[in-house]
């Protein structure tokens, strides 16, 4: 699987409610920024993603402009993603236009995220 396929598979795993932490490198310096969180280190990323999977459902993830550049020892990506989900505990639906970017490194025959940043654009007014 190449880096672009890894990003697409991550989106699909999110839609299906499957575990997401296996897509991240088991490193102490891995980082994931979400819409409302900052997770540093594999243990924190894995726990944050487990909690997300436990408390949310009905994910919609629509990639609008995926761009991936792959080299021998790293890859980076950016995308505009429309996403929505339901928070089960609050019984509330969320929907955001988001920006994604990140870095991946190859491990054996797969690509793993070493950094991911998901944010929403700031709208003035």
UniProtKB/TrEMBL annotation:
Gene3D superfamilies assigned to the protein according to its UniProt record, in alphabetical order: 3.10.450.50
Ranges where the SnoaL-like domain occurs: 5-122
SUPFAM superfamilies tied to this protein: NTF2-like
Coiled-coil ranges (or none): none
Pfam families documented for this protein: SnoaL_3
Transmembrane annotation, as ranges: none
UniProt xrefs under InterPro entries: NTF2-like_dom_sf, SnoaL-like
Domain of life (superkingdom): Archaea
Protein name as catalogued: Nuclear transport factor 2 family protein
Organism the protein comes from: Haloplanus ruber
